[in-house]
Amino acid sequence: MRAATTEPRAVRALLILLAIGWLALVILLPLLAVFVQALEKGTGPFVDAILQPDALASIRLTLLTAALVVPINCVFGIAAAWAVAKHDFRGRNLLVSLIDLPFSVSPVVAGLMFVLLFGANGWFGPWLMAHGVRIMFAVPAIVIATAFVTFPYVARELIPLMVAQGRAEEEAALTLGANGFQAFWHVTLPNIRWGLLYGVLLTNARAMGEFGAVSVVSGHIRGLTNTMPLHVEVLYNEYNFVGAFAVASLLAGLALVTLAAKTLLEWRHRDALAATGH
C-alpha cells in the first residue's frame, strides 16, 4: 500500500523543525519573557505588584466579568445550537450568520457600537441617564461588550456536534413519552457535554483576556473599571514594568491553565469516543 505521504524523511524533519521553531518564536519565547520580566527583581516586588489595590480590583473585576458572561453565553449558546441543529425554520441561515457576526467585527468596533447605543449621546443614553441607569463606563458595559465578543464560542462548538448527532435519539425519547426538557436533560446534554465544556473554556479564556471592546466602554477608571488587560496597559504606559508583567503573568498563567484543561477534555473526549466504538 502506498504511504499517505511520500516526502523524504529529511523534508518531513525540516517541516517539523520549521513548525516548532515558528511556535517557539511567536508563542513560547514571548510567554517565557513575560514570566522572566515579572520575576526579574525577585518575588517580593512581584507579590507587592499583585497586592496593590488597583491590581486586586482589576483581578476581581476580570473574574466577576467572566463569572457573569460564561453562564449567559452558555445558556444562549446551547439555545442557539439547539435551534439550528434540531429544528428547520425560516431564517435558520440568518441565525447562523448572526452567531458568527462577532468573529467578523473588530472588538473596538463592537465597543463603539455600544457607545452609540448607551452613551450619553447615544440612542438610549438620554433615557438611561434620566432614569438613573448607568451602563457606559461601568461594569454593565464591560459585561455586555465581553458577552458580545465571546458569544459565538459555545454555539460554534455545539452546532456541528449536534448536527452530526442528528435528531433520532431526541425523537425516540419524545415517542416514549418524555417531554422536551427531559429529552434535553437525559439525551441531548450527555451527548454534548464535552463540546459544551470545551466551549465554556474558550469563552472563559476570551472573557478574561478581552481588551479592545472593554477598552472602549470601560472609561479606564483605575480601581473601578480596569480589567486585568487594561491594568497591564496602564502600568506599562507608566513605565512600571514589574507591575505590568506581574499582572500579565497572571493572565498568562490563566491561559496555561485553560490550555491544560482543554487538553484534558480532548483526552477524555477521545477516550469516551473510543469506549463507545466511534
Mean pLDDT: 86
Number of strands: 0
Q: How big a fraction of the residues is strand? A: under 5%
Q: SS-based structural class?
A: mainly alpha
Helix and strand element order:
HHHHHHHHHHHHH
User: What's the end-to-end separation, in Å?
Assistant: 25 Å
3D shape: globular
The percent range for helix content is over 70%
Tell me the radius of gyration: 23 Å
Largest sheet: none
Counting DSSP H or I runs of 4 or more residues, the number of helices is 13
Q: Uncertain regions: pLDDT < 50 for 5+ in a row? A: none
Describe this structure in words.
The protein has 278 residues and is mainly α. The chain is built from 13 helices and no strands. Helix 3 runs antiparallel to helix 10 (180-209) and helix 12 packs antiparallel against helix 13. It is globular and about 65 Å long. 31% of the residues are buried.
Features:
278 residues, mainly alpha, 13 helices
Care to give the gist of this entry?
This protein has 278 residues and is mostly helical.
What is the strand and helix layout of this fold?
Layout: H1 9-38, H2 43-50, H3 53-86, H4 92-104, H5 107-118, H6 125-130, H7 139-150, H8 152-165, H9 168-175, H10 180-209, H11 212-218, H12 228-237, H13 241-276
Helix pairs in contact: 1-13, 2-13, 3-7, 3-8, 3-10, 3-12, 5-7, 5-11, 7-10, 7-11, 8-10, 9-10, 10-13, 12-13
